[in-house]
Design a protein that fits this description.
Blueprint (H helix, E strand, L loop, with lengths): L8 E10 L5 E4 L6 E4 L7 H7 L7 E6 L13 E5 L14 E6 L2 E10 L3 E5 L9 E12 L2 H6 L11
Antiparallel strand pairs: 1-2, 1-3, 1-9, 4-9, 5-8, 6-7, 7-8
The chain binds zinc ion (ZN).
């Protein structure tokens, strides 16, 4: 069925994500809907699981605990790095997000503390350890094209152009 969300469909949704205290952390309100290829890890797994089988026009609300969202926080992902490992001309501020170059590609981290010679960095995802609520409305669903499935992303409006 092409008109419900399933693996290898392309879904367009409007969504609002909130923390349990009601603070909005992300929303498509007033913007184009979010378009994604289902079943190719473009979205967190819990989000896709909750939206499976949803039809155009359907609204769903759900809560994802960290294990179904961005994972639990890992204290081992907090590291202390000598300040001289950063370029001398690089402005360092608490809260700054940067990326370390690794063999697996860029690995994002956040600076959480700075002293004279030590910079404390946190490789946890900024949403790790957080429970997330979503309110989602399905705008459009279509079958993915074979090239989209092969590439693992959406082509055309809302997607990848090449
Ligand atoms: Zn492509």
């Amino acid at each position: 069925m092409a008109n419900v969300i399933d693996k290898d469909t392309v879904a367009a949704v409007h969504y609002t994500g909130t923390f349990p205290d009601g603070e909005v952390f992300d929303s498509s309100e007033g913007k184009d809907p979010l378009v994604f290829l289902v079943g190719h890890r473009q979205m967190i797994l819990g989000f896709e699981e909750e939206m499976m089988g949803a039809a155009v026009g359907e609204k769903r609300e759900f809560t994802l605990t960290p294990d179904r969202a961005y994972g639990e926080r890992d204290d081992g992902a907090i590291q202390q790095v000598p300040r001289d490992q950063f370029p001398a001309d690089m402005p360092l501020e608490i809260g700054t997000m940067m990326a370390a170059q690794t063999e697996q590609g860029p690995l994002p981290f956040t600076i959480t503390d700075i002293s004279d010679d030590i910079v404390t960095v946190d490789f946890n995802h900024q949403m790790a350890g957080k429970t997330l609520r979503f309110s989602v409305e399905v705008v459009e669903v279509r079958e993915a094209a074979p090239e989209e499935i092969a590439h693992g992303h959406v082509h055309g409006p809302g997607g990848h152009h090449h």
